[in-house]
Design a protein that fits this description.
By secondary structure, the chain is of the alpha/beta class. The protein is built from 14 helices and 13 strands. The chain folds into 2 domains: 203 residues, Glycogen Phosphorylase B (Rossmann fold); 156 residues, Rossmann fold.
Amino acid sequence: MRDQATNRFGLYLSDLNRDKNDSHGIINYAVGLANALPAAIGTGEQLFIYANPAIARELDAQLSHRISIRLTPPPTPLRRLMSDHVLGIRRAVQDEVSVLHFPKGFIPVVAPREMRLVATLHDDIPLMYARGDFGKEYASLKSNYFTFSLRHTLRRANALVTVSDTSLGRFKDLAAESSIEMPPSFVSHQGITLPLGDPVPVDKKRPVLLHIGSNKPHKRSYEAVEFMLEYARTSDLDLQLTILGPLTRDAELLLQKRAANRIKRTLSGHELARLIRESRALVFNSEREGFGLPPVEAYALGTPAVYARTDVMLEVLGSTPGAYPQGDYAGFANALDQAFALTTETLADVRSEILTQYNWEAVARQTVRAYRQVAAAQ
């Protein structure tokens, strides 16, 4: 038997797959948390990280008598379901883990009562797709499954971690609608997932206006491209539009009106960080996010962002320059004018504030606080 004074915490990363999952933000969150947790684990505590081989290669954790990495099989679709709902729990039981954390947010259908479960819930976007908020054509079996998993997590988890107060409010509303009693909840926010490097001074940046595209309707990339094209057409600046990732067919047709740098392949973290650092501004137009990381990371890399003034962005970025009313081109153009007017010194001040407020050390401390509270309640 193990020492009863020892808290054994587990972090479940077996279900993360960059090749088959387009939620790279959630994967980056999980990996960032895994790399920060060992420093937050205290005396008398142990951490077991369950990771498939691809994710394990991204971990920086130094193995010790208090930190163990358990390799799990690659997550093929069938094996992943078995691992998520059966095998992962079984392995954690063998390690006598008392608190098991699922940073992707979806906990097993059945778990031993003596094991306490913590889940990070990022956003309610799958629920919105499942109920047809973005059009019935976007509802799918996948979104329905995620919606079931979201409600199950609210019912069964012993504690929740969320990445913003805004997201926590949404989950409280969902719990009330579903007559679910919310478990204890903790807001951890997020850290920066891209390599920071040294910022590029404003006068050394390339004249690039950058957008990370998406074909998902809540990201509103069509509108972002439309606004970028209009600004470039009417501006005295000789801007190069650079669009990453997938776009809808309509957005691709828009881009035929002007030469643009289309990058469809997935960039590495280092490539993306370098591109953001060298760009004059990042455009972010999403209408629904759990945290809204891209504009935060842009400022952390020394590049201004213009972003739709949504509830979560107001929480996360506050009065940081660049906000505009979604759907309002005049507001967008004004925000971009202001972004281009920011000096290297001002951007350095904003960068310092961002890095002080959003870092993995703080995320890990808040997460371990959740672990300890759940363990103490057993």
